[in-house]
């Protein structure tokens, strides 16, 4: 049985089309996904991300534990900051990519993806056995709302308490702070998955509807609109951000996914997967994740073959026509010798080869 977020009734009132994602009934779109995509690029979009996981890790060994459980150096994060990281298997496969917020010296918030929230929480519980820490999964009681787009800050300032306004304007990227919005206490993070400036708002389920309505009302004069998962996917692909299950999985390692920099080999902890991942830093990879730009109008899709001279040399992981750029973009794993930007390849679009060029990602980069 699929789960519903605390905001499900709001989505119904707004006429959302729903889809099952990670075991949750989530808004796919409210209007045209193309319109929603452009709204985020030009103004701001309002997203329900309450299907994401939230796991608190607390205790005197919290930093040491996370340095063992995850591949990054979480002990090096300053209080108030955040870090993108990965949790891997012993053999180096990616269980999930996630964001970790340090809220105090001995208190961290780990945010895994919706489809992996239970798996990550269970893995952290298991790995915590020899550490003086508490792992608490609060995913079922926590709502997460995102405001993404160039007008995001202005919208939040409309509903911020006077003493919170400076905290919002001073908040840096990949950082979080406690603020008061619409009379509610909110953990506000300046992070996102769209390539735009934006914020993610953590709040308890019973207060989610009040916060959603307050943001929507404040955003009306800024052309804010609710947006669903379809627009979120096209936005993240333009921004070159990986999606678990497409670019990342148990059969991929961080280095071939272009995430070798996330793996900290300088930290002293013998983190899970280190014995396999450390040699990969200097090893010659067989394949690499690249960006592809189409020369025509037809788009590559996940699972399509990348070919050169009729031979399969890789597989598309994500692809669509870019609403912002006006041409097809995709990400794909290709043989490492073909990963250099400028390399010409083809994608087999149901029996018809279409020309694509390997390009650097992100495809889209916002103007600061």
Describe this structure in words.
This protein is an alpha+beta fold and 368 residues long. It folds into 3 domains: 3-52 and 141-238, Gyrase A, domain 2 (2-Layer Sandwich); 55-137, 2-Layer Sandwich (Alpha-Beta Plaits); 285-368, Aminomethyltransferase beta-barrel domains (Elongation Factor Tu (Ef-tu), domain 3, Beta Barrel), CATH 2.40.30.110. The chain is 23% helix and 33% strand. It contains 9 helices and 20 strands. The chain has a 6-stranded mixed β-sheet with strand order 11-12-13-10-4-14, sandwiched between helices. The protein has a 6-stranded antiparallel β-barrel with strand order 15-18-17-16-19-20. Helix 2 crosses helix 8 and helix 5 packs across helix 7. The radius of gyration is 21 Å and the shape is globular. The model has no long low-confidence stretch (mean pLDDT 97).
Helices and strands in order:
Blueprint: E1 3-4, H1 8-13, E2 17-21, E3 24-29, H2 33-42, E4 44-48, E5 55-58, H3 62-69, E6 82-88, E7 94-104, E8 107-111, H4 117-127, E9 134-137, E10 142-148, H5 152-159, H6 162-170, E11 176-181, E12 184-189, E13 198-204, H7 205-219, E14 224-226, H8 229-238, H9 274-280, E15 287-294, E16 305-308, E17 311-321, E18 328-335, E19 344-349, E20 352-359
Parallel strand pairs: 1-3, 4-14
Antiparallel strand pairs: 2-3, 4-10, 5-8, 5-9, 6-7, 7-8, 10-13, 11-12, 12-13, 15-18, 15-20, 16-17, 16-19, 17-18, 19-20
Helix pairs in contact: 2-8, 5-7
Brief description of this entry?
The protein has 368 residues and is α+β, with helices and mostly antiparallel strands. 23% of the residues lie in helices and 33% in strands.
